[in-house]
Amino acid sequence: MRLCPNRNETFTRKDGKTWDIQTNHRGERILSDEKEDTNLWIIGDSMAMGYGLPTKETLAFYLKTKYNLNARVIAVDAIGTNGISRLLKETLTGTKEENHPKKIFWIWNPSDFIDDEREKTGLKRFLYPIHHLLSRYSYTYRYFLPSPPNNVYTSYGTPILYPKEHITYSNLFQFLNDPSISKEKLSILFSLGMSREGKPDTSDPNYDETKKFFIQEGMNTIDLRKKTEELFKEQKQIYIPGDGHPGPALAELFADAIASEFLNLQ
């Protein structure tokens, strides 16, 4: 799954504010039509993509304006570990070796435990994007859907600790041990999702457990959970109101952390 290529669209959020998104011919979100090669890549799902954020509030925009760093954003809303892995490998294959990244940053969050369970193969892989859009925007369609599983990422549940036998851990192990992906180039960023009360979700135990897993696999992790809580206490907009995706303050925090590590490599 990729974003639609060569688009420049504007949408309205739940809070009434608009946000724009522009994509290139590869279906990647970009800041402008300027073609600039970069060896800094961002991968992930909606958190990395900047879902709901206008261009001038995205992670890539802060990297460019604060640090003069161009970032290639290889991210799509509502995909899990396998989807992200497949997207990264396809992008590596389609990119000249001299333009391969020096560093790849993955903004990870526990929604993968849900997305991995619902990722489809075969024909269902192509039908799922249609289902996803209808379930998001059509009340009538949602009315006839069965109740979703009980978990923190819906409005119905509470945090649960996913077992080590969960498919996400299997997918992560395959991803991190794929010889075509350099583990030395990959860093994992952790923040905090929004709870149903609109606060940082500090009760979810999967952050700690997954971080342990990444460390055991020899991965570099960047834990921004405490800084996320501090920004919330300072009443910064770390989440999009009524939505829960990262707001501009959290996007800027990601940019600061990524720039700090990337510039140290130069």
UniProtKB/TrEMBL annotation:
SUPFAM superfamilies: SGNH hydrolase
NCBIfam families: GDSL_LA_2486
Name the record gives this protein: SGNH/GDSL hydrolase family protein
